[in-house]
Structure formats: structure tokens, C-alpha cells
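Supplementary notes (optional reading)

For those who missed the lab, this is the record we used. Protein: Alpha carbonic anhydrase 7-like. Length: 298 residues.
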Amino acid sequence: MQIKMAKLAKLVSIFSLLTALVLLSSCPAISQELENQNEFSYDEDSEIGPQHWGDIKPEWSLCKYGERQSPIDLINKLVEIVSYLGPLQIRSKPSNAILKNRGHDIKLEFTENSNYLLIDGIQYALKQFHWHSPSEHTINGRRLDLELHMVHQTPSGQIAVIGVLYRIGKPDTLLSLLRKDLRAISGQTGEERVVGVINPKLVKLDRDEYYRYNGSLTTPACSQNITWTIIREVKSVSKKQIELLRVAVHDESDSNARPLQPLNDRLVQLNRPKRCQPLKFESTHDDQNMIRNLYDSE
């Protein structure tokens, strides 16, 4: 009798897990990113580290079993080069914002829905910026120093994220503006600070050349069906600015970047205007030149 009950309990557990996976994978990503990030860690040796995120809660199971997860390595030899996606359609104007320390990252939340991104006729309102160091996405295996995520969302909960990669160099204009506010909330998880009016245009984007693929949130619950846009142009940020972002969260970790996830059978597109010459991959020398141009084209 006990054996039968144990088998039944096991079957119920498996059925519940499969049901959760089907529901999560077939629906738009409507879950918000966690505001309290103390329930997980970026420490690879921790019991709540990235490899264990999917075991912490049933609703985080996609972190372990999802097949369209982010971040990924953007390998230029594997992308489909297109021009029909066209320039990014973005509307930006100065808006009120709040800076918040979420424990593992710093979030700049826009309190008005006056900025948006238009993709396939769908309007995504800009909700927030946050930063990861080093970068989560890589290009041809190369990890950059910082990545900004510009998170957009529709009223129905669909999410689109613009990722901007940075390497160490000249200071970033937006982070320079936020310097005093970052110091004010440093080491205080959950602390918020009204920063007044911020212009999203301070992050100057090359709207013509970008990668596009379908992925997930890079933090639990790792919700899928996220439309990712990674700007091809690499921006600059100072070493001190990156250090300020890490010191501010004070989570005793050197990184808040999730490890790379398998591409599986997903398509990655690189939008380039027709006037641009096609990328060439005939030889290793061409590959090296292409990669060098990628990071020197600011």
C-alpha cells in the first residue's frame, strides 16, 4: 500500500511539473522581474546560484527546463542578416523616474508610460532600465564589461528588452548624471530615491544595426517569449561607474550576469540597412577584422 501511495505521489508531482511547464512556455511572458532579489544568487557555489534557480520554486522551473532562455552568445556566422526589420521605432521624451536598489541590481523605473518601442505594430511602454556587469550576452564568445537592459511591456504583459553593451572607456552620460543618487542608495536593498526627470535619449542608440531573437528574462522566473533586441554598436563606460553599480548593491558578488544559455533551434537575426556591405566570413582573417570593426565602430 505504501509503495502504491509513493508511486501515486511521484506521478502527481511529475504531472504538476509538466502542467506548469506547458502553461509557462505557451503563454506570453507576463510575470514581472523580482523586486526582492534576495531569494536567488549569482554565486556559482551557492545552493541558490544560477544552476539551482529552477529548483528553488516550482514557478521558476523554466530557469532549468526552458528551451528558449537568455542570455546567449551572438555568433555572427550563425545569424541571418536581414534589412526588412528596419530601424528601431522608438519614442522617447523626458520622464519622471525613481532609482531603486533591488539587491542584485540597480533599477531606474520610469513612472509614466510616455516612452515606447514599436515592434510588428505592437506598442511596448518603457518601464525601466537596469544594469548587469559583466555583460550577459556575448558576441562571438566575447563578454563585454557592462550591459544595460531597457525593459518595455504591453498592457497585456508582453515584454520586449533592448540590450546595450559597454566596454571600459569614457564615462557614460546617464550614469554620470545618477552618480550622487547611486551613492545615496548604496548598500541599502529596497531603498528608493526619486531622481526627477530623466531623458531616455541619454542612452544614444544606433537604431539601424541590431540583433533580434526570442528569449527569456535573465532572472527568475526566467519567463520566456521575450523579444530581445541587442544593439550592435558597443558604447563606453568608465571603470569607476561599473564599480559604483556593483558596490551599490553590496551583494558580495563580483557579477550579476547569468551564465550563457543554449541557443537550441532558435533563429537570431542581424538587421542591417541595405546600404551596408554584407558581413564576410571567408577566412579567419576576415573574422578577426569583422570582430575588430564591431568593437571599434563607435
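If you only remember one thing from this example: Residues 1-30, 281-298 have pLDDT under 50 and may be disordered.
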